[in-house]
Design brief:
This protein is 40% helix and 19% strand. With 396 residues, it is of the alpha/beta class. It folds into three domains: 3-147, Globins (Globin-like); 154-252, Beta Barrel (Elongation Factor Tu (Ef-tu), domain 3); 269-389, 3-Layer(aba) Sandwich (Rossmann fold), CATH 3.40.50.80. The strands form two sheets. The protein has a six-stranded antiparallel beta sheet with strand order 4-3-6-1-2-5, covered by helices on one side. Helix 9 links the parallel strand 7 (269-274) and strand 8 (297-303). It is globular, with a radius of gyration of 22 Å. The chain binds flavin-adenine dinucleotide and protoporphyrin IX containing FE. Residues 38, 41-43, 46, 52, 55-56, 59, 79-80, 83-84, 87, 89, 93-94, 97, 128-129, 132, 392-394 line the site of protoporphyrin IX containing FE (HEM). Protoporphyrin IX containing FE binds at residues 38, 41-43, 46, 52, 55-56, 59, 79-80, 83-84, 87, 89, 93-94, 97, 128-129, 132, 392-394. It catalyses: 2 nitric oxide + NADH + 2 O2 = 2 nitrate + NAD(+) + H(+); 2 nitric oxide + NADPH + 2 O2 = 2 nitrate + NADP(+) + H(+). This is Flavohemoprotein. GO terms for molecular function: FAD binding; heme binding; metal ion binding; nitric oxide dioxygenase NAD(P)H activity; oxygen binding; oxygen carrier activity. Its cofactor is heme b; FAD.
Length: 396
């Protein structure tokens, strides 16, 4: 891009800050009207909630702000690219997005969008699209060449369903083609795709693998999302719990995700989870346990009550003193003798050498909003904090 084009893109920063969500809402409506087949890969509930619109608006704004040095966004690009590859996004789809994004800039900005501005954004978009396409191509190749992965969807059979708590059920998945299973890093997720009869659409969702990589099965553990306030119960999780039985088939992606345990690290590891955020921690704890090294692990889990506390038998049996396990319940009863009264207070459970530890954090939005700033306040270096948010667009 030349100096003038960079300046033109930067000039749109105030307007993106002000009207970015209006722009991306217009964009999605336009694109999904012209290309309705894409409704099968976009989470329709995220669309209704405006999550995806906010996530894209934030990404476009961040890109415009860093247009003279997009490498500042490498970590964000990497994270989005993992989500894209788990959904099987292809290079040719960038042209569709580009066409509707540029048309939306014109339509939303109206007369304020000069031809020079549109031309500058066309070049800026292509530069970003090329970056994503390159990173995603690398991820696809690594998955296939190094991890026994595949591209797109592969049918898996639900070999076994196991109830882990009142709300969480595990699904043990084996490939219908009886081929080999992928190798993955503990903490990574898969996308699954199910057909929704009510809307006549396929819908994807991501689920963390809740056991370390093995040669027998993939395991995901899904919370049945209840209706919230005026909103209906979760579409895919309820379908999986109620309609998908042992023997049913679901489509599964290769594992992806940039949130995973660093097996080369010798630092103490703190696994901090709330509710269903325990799932990636299960895979990490399982992997560390199997690795047979001496690294100290603090497994800290917070749940509403014993009824919804999953995997307790497994974590109770993690070998001590290597593993130090603490539980917190919001509603603790006398029977919960090995549990502390929530909310969890980090200072009470962290090791004295916590500045030297690696932190892995996963939980509901409120949990993340509470504990991530606390870790920063405690002076933990950003590079040591690894977080996974179960929504779209990171922690809001
Ligand atoms: C990387 C990653 C890993 C994940 N791992 C796991 C895991 O291991 N286990 C797990 O259970 N989940 C996991 N998730 C979450 C999972 O992908 C789904 O988001 C979750 O199962 C809910 O999907 P659903 O279709 O049941 O609910 P949805 O239908 O998507 O609804 C979600 C919530 O939104 C509410 N809602 C519906 N419509 C609206 C509206 N218009 N406005 C506001 N709210 C509305 C619903 O009541 C519901 O509570 C993960 C997510 C990510 C991104
Ligand atoms: C330069 C172009 C693009 C940018 C900046 C972009 C940005 C984003 C962002 C910020 C997210 C949210 C990530 C998260 O959940 O953490 C996302 C998710 C997603 N993107 Fe893209 N994207 C681009 C291109 C594409 C293309 C070409 C497609 C395919 C048509 C696509 C399909 C999706 C889908 C399906 C999701 C998940 C949506 C959801 O679950 O709500 N994206 N993208």
């Amino acid at each position: 891009m030349n100096e003038q084009q960079i300046a033109l893109v930067k000039d749109t920063v105030p307007v993106l800050r002000e009207s970015g969500v209006a722009l991306t809402s217009h964009f999605y409506q336009r694109m999904l009207t012209h290309n309705p087949e894409l409704k099968n890969i976009f989470n329709q509930v995220h669309q209704q909630k405006g999550r995806q619109q906010r996530a894209l608006a934030n990404a476009v704004l961040a890109y415009a702000e860093h247009i003279d040095d997009p490498s500042a966004l490498n970590a964000v690009v990497e994270r989005i690219a993992h989500k894209h590859t788990s959904l099987g996004i292809r290079p040719e789809q960038y042209a569709i997005v580009g066409k509707h994004l540029l048309a939306s800039i014109k339509e939303v900005l109206g007369e304020a969008a000069s031809q020079e501005l549109i031309d500058a954004w066309a070049i800026a978009y292509q530069q970003l699209a090329d970056l994503f396409i390159q990173v995603e191509s690398q991820l696809y190749q690594t998955a296939i060449n190094d991890h026994q992965g595949w591209t797109g969807w592969r049918p898996f059979k639900i070999a076994k369903k196991v109830q882990e708590s009142d709300e969480i059920t595990s699904f043990y998945l084996t490939p219908c083609d009886q081929g080999t299973l992928p190798h993955y890093h503990p903490g990574q997720y898969i996308s699954v795709r199910v057909f929704i009869p009510d809307t006549d659409l396929y819908q994807p969702r991501q689920y963390s693998l809740s056991i370390a990589s093995n040669n027998e099965y993939l395991r995901i553990s899904v919370k049945k999302q209840p209706a919230l306030d005026k909103y209906p119960e979760g579409v895919v999780s309820n379908l999986l719990h109620e309609e998908y039985t042992e023997g049913s088939i679901i489509d599964v992606s290769t594992p992806y995700g940039d949130f995973f345990w660093d097996s080369d690290s010798t630092h103490p590891t703190v696994l901090l989870s709330g509710g269903v955020g325990i799932t990636p921690m299960m895979a990490i704890a399982d992997a560390i346990n199997a690795a047979n090294d001496t690294q100290k692990v603090y497994f800290i889990h917070s749940a509403r009550s014993s009824n919804v506390h999953a995997f307790k038998t497994f974590t109770d049996n993690l070998p001590s003193p290597q593993f130090s396990v603490s539980y917190f319940y919001d509603n603790k009863t006398i029977a919960d003798s090995d549990v502390q009264q929530g909310p969890l207070t980090l200072e009470d459970v962290l090791p004295s050498d916590y500045h030297n530890a690696d932190f892995y954090v996963c939980g509901p939005e409120g949990f993340m909003q509470n504990y991530l700033p606390k870790l920063r306040q405690l002076g933990i270096d950003e590079s040591r904090i690894h977080a996974e948010a179960f929504g779209s667009g990171g922690v809001e």
